[in-house]
Design a protein that fits this description.
The protein has two domains: 119 residues, Glycogen Phosphorylase B (Rossmann fold, 3-Layer(aba) Sandwich), CATH 3.40.50.2000; 170 residues, Glycogen Phosphorylase B (Rossmann fold, 3-Layer(aba) Sandwich). 42% of the residues lie in helices and 16% in strands. It has a six-stranded parallel β-sheet with strand order 10-9-8-11-12-13, sandwiched between helices. It has a four-stranded parallel β-sheet with strand order 4-5-6-7. A three-stranded mixed β-sheet has the order 1-3-2, with no helix packed on it. By secondary structure, it is of the alpha/beta class. Strand 6, helix 5 and strand 7 form a beta-alpha-beta unit. The chain is globular, with a radius of gyration of 22 Å. The two termini are 15 Å apart. The chain has 14 helices and 13 strands.
Length: 351
């Protein structure tokens, strides 16, 4: 067996914190360190001084450190003490490397001060896609130090009946397009609203259901919906935290659309496929080559996206075919069992 310890923050959301500092979950020891500001932490500025003392005292007890980001306080501390005490560490950026939208100048300054140090002394880098591997080589990482690890999902274990989510939100058999993601500019919800407005001439009863937390862009989307007189056809919903209801949302959707300006390896695509629902993404999504095996990839363009939505809404058999292809792909390559096995082999090679 393995002895696994997780260091993380105590932030749940902008207002709430974990009520415990330490717990053991299924044999995994989890330390929740207090952030100096919940508001900052919710904006991904994690500063938890308590982790400094714990890492300094305990880091020599670990055989390997796995960092899941480079631009945070905890990674600075972990990399420093790991280097000092010769403990190898690996970095898995999870798509955070590019300076695309938001805080570009701060990211550049951070990288000069600390980020480049963290990268320089890492033993290995984990990329989720070819796109991320290219991002790593572009900043000077030798390709021999890059290994691939995908995202994964749990096998649902049972097939759900249609209609539960539709009944929950008051819909019957109208064409249903689902957006399930946070409302942030990078997610491209505005593109989807504009594209959806173009399909209503041919599909006047179609509904676009948009589900997710506000990440600074919900007011803009609401404004687009109002100005486009789309309130009868677009439904905005709060985040779905109930996993079963979320599964029902995918099941009842005719199409799942993720119109991102940038996306590396969205779990939502795998979740949609696991329920046999067809998927459309933009070509700015890092798994576009994978999606082509069980979905449609379009340029980041409202007309192209509208055409793809109309195409799938017009062809039930194609939706079913793409959804089943995606389902087979998920269970064959992207189950947590397969991902954990691959990660374990990488850990063993380093140790």
């Amino acid at each position: 067996g393995h002895d696994v310890t997780v260091y993380t923050s105590d932030t749940i959301d902008s207002q709430n914190r974990q009520s415990v500092e330490y717990l053991v979950h299924e044999g995994i020891k989890i330390h929740y360190f207090k952030n100096i500001s919940n508001s900052l932490a919710w904006r991904r500025l994690f500063i938890n001084p308590g982790s400094t003392f714990s890492l300094k005292e305990n880091i020599r007890k670990f055989d390997l450190i796995h960092l899941h980001d480079i631009r945070n306080f905890q990674s600075i501390v972990a990399a420093y003490y790991a280097k000092k005490y010769n403990v190898p560490y690996i970095i898995q950026p999870h798509g955070s490397l590019p300076k695309i939208i938001g805080k570009q100048k701060l990211k550049k300054i951070y990288d000069i001060l600390w980020g480049n140090y963290i990268i320089k002394h890492a033993s290995l880098f984990l990329a989720m896609t070819k796109t991320e591997a290219e991002q790593l080589t572009e900043i000077g990482i030798d390709s021999s130090l890059i290994k691939f690890i995908s995202n994964g999902i749990d096998h649902p274990g049972n097939v759900l009946h249609h209609g539960v989510f539709r009944q929950e939100i008051g819909l019957e058999d109208e064409p249903l397009i689902l957006y399930l993601a946070r409302f942030h500019q990078i997610k491209g919800a505005d593109l989807l609203v504009d594209s959806f407005s173009k399909i209503l001439e041919n599909f006047p009863t179609a509904k676009l259901v948009m589900v997710g937390p506000d990440d600074g862009y919900l007011n803009e989307i609401s404004k687009l919906i109002d100005e486009g007189h789309l309130t009868d056809n677009i439904i905005l919903l709060d985040p779905i935290y109930d996993e079963l209801l979320k599964r029902h949302a995918y099941v009842d959707a005719d199409i799942y659309v993720l119109p991102s300006r940038y996306e590396l390896f969205p779990i939502s695509v795998l979740e949609s496929w696991s329920e046999g629902t067809s998927v459309i993404v933009t070509d700015r999504c890092g798994i576009k080559d994978i999606v082509r095996e069980g979905g449609i990839v379009v340029p980041f363009d409202e007309d192209e996206l509208a055409n793809a939505i109309e195409y799938l809404l017009s062809d039930h058999n194609m939706r079913e075919t793409l959804g089943q292809r995606g389902k087979q792909l998920v269970y064959g390559k992207y189950s947590w069992t397969k991902v954990v096995e691959d990660l374990e082999n990488i850990y063993q090679d380093i140790i």
